Amino acid sequence: MGLLLDVKGLKTYFPMGKKGLLFTKPKYYLRAVDGVSFSIEEGETFGVAGEVGSGKTTLARTIIGLYKPHEGEVYFEGKNLFKLSREEQRKTKGKIQLIFSNPYTSLNPRMTLGSMLKEVLQWYKIGSDESERMEITLETLTDVGLEPHHLVRYPHEFSGGQRQRLAIARALIMRPKLLICDEPTIALDESVKAAVLNLLKELQKTMKEKFGMSYLFISNDLGELRYMSKKQTAMMHMGKIVEICPTKDLIESPQHPYTEHLLRVLPLPDPKIKMRPPLLKAEKPLVPPPGCLLHPRCPYAKSKCSIEEPQLLERLEKGHYVACHFPL
Fold it and tell me: Is the dihedral of CA 130, 132, 136, 141 positive or negative?
């Protein structure tokens, strides 16, 4: 197993507060992704956690090429995705597929499932003839728990869980090397959510054995990440990775105040257990403050936190990286 994805210093900024003429400068830039670096090995599942607005989805869409980065590099199988020719991009990015959080908005309502899958196979020139393409299609339907008669249905004729299976099938039919799951269960109820997670877990094992497929699994639910990603999970806050370590350690022994705060506000399954009060103040600045991003609302902040930005460094335990001057 070798290195599959290597993200180095990725930055994606959006201009904000722009008024007036075309050439008017923006008031400031929203740093949706701000200097993110991590790597994924072949066959590995890498988790990304964080609250809404932390930059998780922007990170995924920048990697796949839907957003243009302000700075940084993304290497996939040793190739810089931002410096490939158009034809090389088409071939390489066919190996990276994204499952959106809302499947209905990502599907063409005027196309049947069969038409969508056929279009993908033809565009990427998969299969030598119609017979082979149909064989690949039926195999993919079986993998995601759909039936052959579903091929003639339109997206609105499926239930929420089936639509997410449809979206998974469309991504999986490419036999990708990297499958990016961008909060794939957030629009589903609890019972359907469990079924989709079990499906992704099963596919995680079978596709790893067949094709060496890796997952980049994004979620704001730490329970999901613990189930899907055993090895490593990164915690994002305001576009930056503030903690990265094995998922079990992130949940059981967090070292960053932001991670500890998110664990405190998670709902508990047992009503008899009293929830701990939130660690951080609710106010979240739109423009990043100097020094540590968290210092205006962190109870542990000291004078150093307002001046010097903490770097993501290995702390206390081997393999546990924290961007905090005073880890918990």
Answer: positive
* Cβ-based neighbour number of residue 125 at 10 Å: 10
Phi-psi region of 26 (alpha: psi -120 to 50; beta: other; left: phi over 0): beta
3-18+27-95+174-322 belongs to CATH 2.40.50.140: no
Q: Which amino acid is at 37?
A: S
At residue 35, does pLDDT exceed 60?
yes
Q: What is the largest CA-CA distance in the chain?
A: 69
Q: What is the pLDDT of residue 18?
A: 64
How far apart (Å, rounded) are the C-alpha atoms in residues 129 and 182?
Answer: 33
Tell the residue number behind the tokens 């299969």, with chain if given.
127
**Predicted local distance difference test score (pLDDT) of residue 313:** 87
Question: Is the pLDDT at 23 greater than 90, yes or no?
Answer: no
HEC string of 4-36? EEEEEEEEEEEEECCCCCCCCCCCEEEEEEEEE
| Amino acid at site 282 | A
3-state secondary structure of 213: coil
230 token code pair: 């055993």
Burial class (CB in 10 A: 0-12, 13-18, 19+), 307: exposed
Give residue limits of the domains in the chain: 3-18+27-95+174-322
